[in-house]
């Protein structure tokens, strides 16, 4: 994680981030805010958990207030469900990060020490479509002078098998995504130029594995390896 | 693509409505221009784009108590997200390219 104060205060200036943890924290904040509003509304209108509609109206309450109460209650239930699901998702993602650190320690360290955050989420079929993993290239500033962003999102199937190659891809799939990531953060300006030039000429191949896409070549290379040799990863601008 | 924004800000039961400066988010972003409307609904923002009355959906997430990150979804020609500071002025613009697999 970089030290952009807009994001967080991270004295180390690096990180592999659990993106689903961020999402769960956000959903918890939302749930807490809604529950706080619900409590205040109940206090204001003398409603407790035993109160029913008939009793509320008989006690002088207005129909519009009861309807509002029901809406807030429904929102509270939905927010709780959303948070519960997000929390489960965050735990799955943390498990992947922890296992990756053990199965591919040198590559993990290489990713971790980049100034750009590697923001990992885990996916399900509905979340990822047909892909087993995806990396979203990102850049800051003008396209002609692009700089590495503070973070790049990576998603991997929650069933990723880190200790051996995945049947679905015949590769170490998370290492493959790390290859895309490492090329793009190292050669952001070059990658952005490549993309826009290829797009303009109609030669861009979707998916990141066209003949001229160097990030795809690094991804393929790392996808074949369980780990890299410590301190010996060479990524070239071209000709990988 | 030009997108000009006035942001009506209400979220999480926040009682106040807040205005932000208007920006044109073309491919290079950050040009101050006229107006459109962003309405925050649950996890999404619906943006009306000038007179065209086109509605686009943006995804946003809370970075901290005072900052929202807004990410343009795939309906946009060039994807991107931008950060707002505590006065809800756009702080920086990032662009995303198509995903690689």
Give the % helix of chain A. 40-55%
Strand order of the largest sheet of chain A: 1-2-5-3
Query: How many distinct domains of chain A?
Result: 2
Largest sheet of chain B: 7 strands, mixed
Report the count of strand segments of chain A: 5
Extract low-pLDDT stretches of chain A: 1-13
Main β-sheet of chain A, in a few words?
4 strands, mixed
Oligomer: heterodimer
Helix content of chain B: under 10%
Instruction: Tell me the structural class of chain B.
Output: mainly beta
Radius of gyration of chain B: 13 Å
Span from first to last CA of chain A?
27 Å
Order of helices and strands of chain B: EEEEEEEEE
What structural category arises from helix and sheet content of chain A?
alpha/beta
- For the termini of chain B, the CA-CA separation is 27 Å
Judging from the principal axes of the Cα atoms, what is the shape of chain A?
elongated
SS strand fraction of chain B: over 45%
Topology:
The complex is a heterodimer of chains A (240) and B (101).
Chain A: E1 16-18, H1 19-44, H2 53-58, H3 63-103, H4 105-112, E2 117-123, H5 125-128, E3 133-136, E4 138-140, E5 151-157, H6 173-186, H7 188-201, H8 214-223
Parallel strand pairs in A: 1-2, 2-5
Antiparallel strand pairs in A: 3-5
Chain B: E1 6-8, E2 23-24, E3 31-32, E4 37-41, E5 44-49, E6 54-64, E7 67-72, E8 79-84, E9 90-96
Parallel strand pairs in B: 1-4
Antiparallel strand pairs in B: 2-3, 4-5, 5-6, 6-7, 7-8, 8-9
């Amino acid at each position: 994680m970089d030290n952009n104060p807009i994001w967080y205060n991270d004295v180390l200036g690096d990180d592999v981030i659990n993106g689903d943890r961020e999402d769960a924290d956000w959903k918890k904040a939302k749930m807490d805010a809604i529950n706080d509003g619900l409590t205040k509304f109940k206090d204001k209108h003398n409603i407790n958990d035993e109160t029913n509609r008939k009793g509320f109206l008989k006690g002088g309450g207005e129909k519009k207030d009861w309807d509002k109460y029901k809406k807030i209650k429904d929102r509270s239930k939905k927010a709780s469900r959303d948070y519960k699901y997000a929390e489960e998702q965050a735990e799955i993602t943390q498990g992947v990060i922890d296992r990756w650190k053990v199965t591919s320690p040198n590559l993990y360290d290489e990713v971790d020490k980049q100034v750009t955050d590697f923001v990992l989420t885990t996916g399900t079929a509905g979340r990822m479509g047909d892909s087993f993993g995806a990396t979203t290239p990102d850049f800051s500033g003008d396209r002609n002078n692009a700089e590495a962003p503070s973070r790049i999102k990576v998603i991997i199937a929650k069933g990723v098998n880190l200790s051996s190659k995945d049947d679905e891809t015949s590769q170490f799939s998370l290492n493959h995504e790390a290859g895309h990531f490492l090329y793009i953060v190292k050669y952001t300006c070059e990658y952005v130029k490549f993309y826009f030039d290829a797009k303009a000429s109609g030669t861009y191949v979707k998916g990141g594995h066209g003949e001229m896409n160097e990030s795809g070549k690094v991804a393929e290379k790392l996808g074949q390896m369980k780990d890299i040799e410590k301190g010996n990863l060479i990524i070239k601008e071209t000709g990988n | 693509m030009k997108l000009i924004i006035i942001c009506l800000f209400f979220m999480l039961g926040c009682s106040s409505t807040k205005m932000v400066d208007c920006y044109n988010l073309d491919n290079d972003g950050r040009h101050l221009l006229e107006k459109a409307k962003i309405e925050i609904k649950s996890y999404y923002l619906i943006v009306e784009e000038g007179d065209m009355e086109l509605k686009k959906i943006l995804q946003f997430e809370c970075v901290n108590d005072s900052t929202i990150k807004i990410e343009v979804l795939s309906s946009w020609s060039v994807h991107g997200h931008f950060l707002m500071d505590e006065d809800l002025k756009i702080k920086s613009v990032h662009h995303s390219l198509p995903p690689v697999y």
